[in-house]
Amino acid sequence: LIPLMIGCTDMVFPRLNNLSYWVLPGPLFMLLVSALIEGGAGPGWTLYPPLSASMFHSTPGMDLVIFALHIAGFGSIMSSLNFMSTIGGARFYGLIPERMPIFIWAMFVTSWLLLFSLPVLAGGLTMLLTDRHANTSSFRPAGGGDPVLFQHLFWF
Question: Model-level pTM?
Fold first, then answer.
């Protein structure tokens, strides 16, 4: 829909568009499988650290959720880069930014927000994964970590 609204024939990077689309079924399958594993993702969709620590929730369902969110975030970053480059560089010559449809502006702003927020979420998820498996203490108060830090990174 974006290429039609800005007057170009296709996305700037059609293969990146295809790759970002085909990356998403894998994480969706992993999220569904993680719900079927014993214990599932017990802490819920927010993955708060005291509940998602390996001492309280040691099933592999938690790891599947973290890994699936990493991969889905990577696919969303690829899509947002493609959307921004298409909107910024492939619109027809007479389409000035003031005359672009509101949907195009919404997609552009959403792509910027995803580009800046998903790496922060990925960093928090990586810290959570290392707390679970590499014996770090980013979110464990006993080791000097701060459990509220993940909430700040998650809701950023």
Answer: 0.85
Q: Does residue 42 contact residue 62 with C-beta atoms inside 8 Å?
A: yes
User: What distance in Å separates the CA atoms of residue 25 and residue 27, rounded to the nearest whole number?
Assistant: 6
Q: What is the pLDDT of residues 96-142, one digit of tens each?
A: 878 889 999 999 999 999 999 999 999 999 998 998 888 888 888 88
CA angle (151, 49, 149) in 5-degree steps: 35
Domain count of the chain?
A: 1
C-alpha span between 58 and 151 (Å, rounded): 20
**What residue numbers bound the domain in which 101 lies?**
2-154
Q: What is the spatial distance between Cα 156 and Cα 152, in angstroms, rounded to a whole number?
A: 6
Cβ contacts of 67 within 8 Å, gap of 6 or more: 27, 30
Of 41, 46, 45, 50, the C-alpha closest to 138 is 50
